Amino acid sequence: MRRNRSSIRAAAAGATAVTALATVLAGPAAGTAGAAEPERLVIDLGTDTGAFHGGASGSLYGVYGDGVPSRNLIEGMGLRTVSTKAQDGPQHPGADALEMLPPFVDSGGKDVYIYMTDIYRGFPYQWPGADGPARLADFQRKISKQVAQVKTMGAYKDHVVYVPFNEPEGNMFGTGEWSYDKVSWLDDPRQFFAAWKDTYRLIKDLDPEARIAGPNTSVLYDQIKGFLRYAKAHDVVPDVMTWHELSSPAKVRTSVATYRRWEKEIGVGPLPINVNEYGHNYHLSVPGQVVQWVSAIEESKIDADLAYWNIDGNLNDSAVEANRGNGQWWLFHAYAQMSGHTVEVTAPHPNQQYTLQGVATLDEDKKQSRALFGGQSGDADIVFRNIDPALFGTTVRATVQEIPWTGQVGDSVQPLRLSDRELTVGADGSVTLPMTGMNEMSAYQVILSPGGNGGEPAAPSVSWRRTYEAENATYTGRGYSRNGPEGTPSDVGRFATSGAYNVGGLRTGSDGVLAFDVDVPRDGTYDLSVFANSYNLYDLVKEQGPTNVFLRVDGKDPRELRLPLGYKWVVWGHTDTTVELTTGTHRITLAAQDPDLGVTKGDAIIDKIDLALRDEHVTAPAIYEAAYASLSGTRPDYGRPGASGPGTVPLAKGDSATFWVYAPGDGEATVSVDHLGGGRAGLSLNGERLDVPEVGGAGKGTDRVRVFLSGGINKITVTGAARELTLDRLLVAPSTGSLKTRVYQAEDGTVTGAAKVTDAYTFASNGKAVTDIGDGRANTLTFDVVAERPGRHALTIRYSNAEQAPATHYNPDPIARHADLSVNGGATRRILFPTTFHFNNFWDLTVPVTLRKGANRLTFTAEELPDFDGDTSNQYDQRSPYTPVIDRIGVTPLAAR
């Protein structure tokens, strides 16, 4: 499960492509099967390779508890399996199996794999006992307690899979200090086999319906074949076969094929497989890397869980804050939207990592094909073959999107629309999409649907953009360092970095200036993203938190930027702003000193800057097509005249269409519901039925609803209510003025007990916040707030949290603090708050609350949570008794029409 970095640096050989500066889709045209191109990814819609499985959306230690990450993030990425620690295990803070089980299952999850060994601390596991039999006896007593706890979970227990041993060849039945007898079972399997048999039977005796997974080795050793023979002979064959693939996507395919051959030879199975750890730091968070793993896992029709190298509760570097996703999250969201069956995909270099790979599906009922691909910079043709005219007609509509890399802790907008157009299918039944300037760190999606229906193609959602690498910029002053190469195919333990290098020097006491010379095509406003990192526990960073630097354009317009923190060095996020530029060349500088604004405090490394023209493509409302939504009880209709896009969706009573909508921040947005009439429908937001009039009517129209969107991912569901509404699409844009927010500073609230106002955190609004709330219900913070009308409201809490538990391994162990919130003296609601990496780094978290008209009282407190049985507590400071530091709250009506 956890290894020293030196043991994971070896990787499959492969060339590293140069990061492209831009991505453009060349004009796609009708193609022929014989088009001669150096690189082609061929998608054969005529070859069915099995039902879509979705198994690559799995996570090891990715869910901390209810709200970290949000249920939107779990459901939206189609999270299928989670491997996590035994309830109350001391291995890491949070991720307790029976606490995360209900929110995971309620969000659509399938199975929780309980690492029963993680009831112990350390790795190798520190199981007590004078000898092997005594250690095993202690473990089996703890196993009995775990099974008894699971049996109290009602129907949720049907989603539990027990994993009795984890990498047993390296710890419990290996050769080290904490092994059973210091003999690896790979050399002499007798002790492990006997322990497996006894433990298996113990669990089945306690719960005959239990599912048990194993042997959970670090790789698919040849000795597993002998394990299968033993398990069959003693009737203890696991219900799920598990092992880890910390190797390459190519190894996934070959290992699964090898294992399936063993099953046939021995006469067991076929068993479900969960490769419950896959990927490395170099891969995780990078859509162009992870899509290669996804293609191999989906082709193999197995489940698999992303490896846990860093912090828990962030979906293995997919989640940002509580409710935001980075590029990797959007990749898995696109993967989760696939349906029907997979089709044959022939890559230009089949089953070779660090080359162009992909996965594709065809859903005959929806009349859609979806393809995900990436992993290579440069140009390639994406060829769809055997397009069935009975499904698609002679014209297809192709929507092409890019899912860029945004860093491990960098929020990402929804996929960028590169092109949306109609193509004539060639006489040979194919179309070719020429992709130019692809970026190896990005993944790409193509959605193919019937064309020729009159809907207007949507304009691209991006315009001119460029990347400028920090290592190519000009540095003046003291302290310069060029760092790298970072992660590479031959050093996969390190983190991915654009261009493989980054620059240091902007720190406390420095006079450094990093200058980027840029050339832009026209006058206008440009979005500027600075990809940067400060290690939150580094000495120079500890004092202030976010490192501040100073931006100027051509020596003018100074402003201060606060750069993102991370849990280690080279963990990238981005700070965003806008700049006004005229046509031609300019110099953009980041400096550690500014004569007008001050000096840098902290220490930062810079990876790159991204510059993008903020024109009508970018500022137009985001388009969410009904034909591409998640549908229940219905399917798209591509034949209705008057549709604005590829098609419409008929919503009879009870039918629904769900859209996963991005918001850049917590606040008001206008959702425009385009429809062709015929009926009415209700709206829900993040599972909350909105108290607004139903949308729709007799004829074509647009209904506009003002809603409060949480920053990041929002779930908007349109559900048929009367007759049959023909839904066309949603348009979403930020707005102001309809939903009034009332802001209350924490220092103006009422504190009791030990809770107190502090001015220790300079980045709190007004320089003040409230700390020491909790550690007993006498220590509270209370706000008296006013609501203009009764009903559901968005409560936005600006907070900070940097509590971190002592660790015995390389995983940082931040703690998600909690608050128990009471409204008007009612029952408390527990809210989890993920780490902000420093107590002087504040984030917003929004939860819905019900308020009465007029005065309301909101009270925050906390106390340390006991273990599951309520008779013990955690002895390693892994459950905080405190709320986060609270800066302020905002109260906003949830919706208005």
Automatic annotation (TrEMBL):
The keyword Disulfide bond does not apply. Residues 466-612, 742-892 form the CBM6 domain. Keywords: Signal. It comes from the Bacteria. Residues 1-35 form the signal peptide. This is Cellulosome protein.
